[in-house]
Amino acid sequence: MRKILYLLLITSYSISYSQSNSSYFQADYFYGNILRQNPDASILLQGHPTGIFMSYNKRTFGEESWQEHYNYPDFGYSLGYQDYKSDILGKLYSAYGHYNFYFTNRTSQNQLIFRAGIGLAYNTNPYDKETNNKNTAFGSSLNSSTYFKLYFQREKLIDNLGLNAGLTFIHASNSNIKSPNSGTNVWAITLGLNYDLDANKSIQTYIPSSEIKHFTEPVKYNFAVRSGINESEIIGSGVKPFFVFSAYADKRLNRKSAIQFGTDLYISPILKDYYELSLTIPHANLKETSDFSRVGIFIGHELFINKISIETQIGYYIKYPFKYVGRVYETLGLKRYLNDKWYATIRLKAHAADAETVEFGVGIRL
After folding, report:
1. Nearest-CA neighbor of 53 among 194, 159, 198?
2. What is the reported pLDDT for 276?
C-alpha cells in the first residue's frame, strides 16, 4: 500500500508540473507469474511477482508522413519497479523507451493498444558464489530488459482521468555479458490509470500522409560490423570481446517491411576457453578442432518506423566447430538510420530462451 501511495504522489507531482498539450501519463500495477524456462528455474519460483509501471506518452498527429502508416502511434518513456517475491531474485528497477501502436480508430476514447519497450534494468540481488549462488537468472546487477503490453484504454472517463487494463510480458537478462544468465520472463495482468495532460480538451486533427501508398525499391546490400563482450556458460570462465561480420541483401515489400537473406561470421574467443575446459570433463565427446569461428545463414524481416527499424532474424550455423548451445539462433535488432546509407545498430542473439550476446555496431545499406 505504501508503494501505491508513493506512486500516486509522484504521478500527481508530475502532472502538476507538465505543460504538454498532446501527452498523457499512465500508472499501472501488475501481478503475474515467472515462466519456468528450464528445470533449474524451479528454485526461483517463491511467489507471484508484483510491480508498478509509470509512463509518459507523447501523441503524434501526422506531423511526419510515416505516422499515418502506423495509425498515429505514441512514443514515450517508462519506469518500472518489480518485486519477484523471491529472496534469491530480489527486485528489479528499469527504464525504457517505448512505442504505443493503436488497433482502433484514433478518434475513439476506447482504444486497444500494443506497446513495445526496450531499456536497461538494475537487479538488487545478482549471483554471488558465496552469498547468492542459487541465482542463475542474473549474473550481474546491470541487465537489458524488454517488455510488451497489450491493453484496453479508456480515456477521459472522469474529466481527464481514464482507465487501462491488460496483459504484459517482461523479460530481463544481461545477455550473457556475465554468467549465469538464464534471465526471467514474467507474464502479468495490469490495471491502472491514465491522465490526459490536454487541459483545454481540444479536438486534435490527424494529418493524412502526403506520401503515395505504392512504394518500390531495388534490392539493397547491407554490410555490418558488430562487437561486444560475453562469457561462456561456465561460470567464472572469463569475460572476453567478440566480433560479428554480417553481409545480407534486403528487398522492400512496401513502406513498412523488407525481407532479408544473408550470412553472419562470429569470432568468439570464449568458445576456445569453453572447449578447453570441456576437454577436462570425462565423456565430453568433443571432436578435435583448432578453429572456433562460426558461420551462419539467416532469413529475416525489417520493420521500418521512420528513421528507426526493427530486425527479426532466424539463422542456422553452416560452420559449427563443436556443440555449443545449439545450431539454430534468433536475433532481435534495433537500427537507427543516420542518413540514407549509414546506420547504428544494437542486436540481441539468442538460442531459444538462452541469450548469448548483445551486439553494438555500425552498418551501411547500399
Report:
1. 194
2. 85
